[in-house]
Amino acid sequence: MRIAICDDEEKFRVQEKNLVDRLSGSLDVVVDAFDDGRDLLKRFDSNPYDLVFLDIEMPTMDGITLAKEIRKRGQQVQIVFLTGHVEYAIEGYEVNALRYLTKPVNEEKLKEVLRHVMDQNVQGKQLILREDGEDLVLNVSDIYYMEAQNQYVMIYASDGEHLIRANIGDFEEQLKNDGFYRIHRGYLVSLAKVKKLLKGEVSLEYHKNAVTLPVSRSNVKPLKEALYAFVEKAAF
Description:
Elements: E1 2-6, H1 10-24, E2 30-34, H2 37-46, E3 51-55, H3 63-73, E4 78-82, H4 89-93, E5 99-101, H5 107-124, E6 126-131, E7 134-139, E8 143-149, E9 152-157, E10 160-165, H6 168-174, E11 180-184, E12 187-190, E13 194-198, E14 201-206, E15 209-214, H7 220-235
Parallel strand pairs: 1-2, 1-3, 3-4, 4-5
Antiparallel strand pairs: 6-7, 8-9, 8-12, 9-10, 11-12, 13-14, 14-15
Helix pairs in contact: 1-5, 2-3
């Protein structure tokens, strides 16, 4: 996830970036800080952000104007205003602002924002696949695990099984930042669906049935670390 912070006051800008960096920890998050909205817009044009924190009172370009320019570039980006003045809230509705945070930013409030945006990113992501000559749209959050079957991949999802002509390695790369882990050369699992980590196996529940999948010896320790990191992310 890409996050931008724009605040002309260095004290608050540094504090806000350090706080986001610390809360995101080992997660796949890039945080850029700007003191001028024009610089943020230039960067946004080349590589858009998922979440932006904007100080409202800035001399060159105020946060409301900056938010309107960002909205012209994308409707999906989440906008959070940093301010001590609640009266700006009405203007914020024009740009569909997610929230207002008062300065200095409260850690718990910031944690809530990050958790919400990360959850939205994963829940909203979809895969467009080809199954039996037709396009299939599958929510990533609905996938339990994938199994390699020669030149095909069987996807076990909430709505049933889907056999797709594909390489499981391609899915591993595509979903590596969405809570999926390659536990074995033949299996890719959603960490959110794992119920138990056993000796050399993982257990999950699929359509009310217990499913046990093998974990290759070399992946046992990395899988534990990935699970802990995932749980930590879900907790905050």
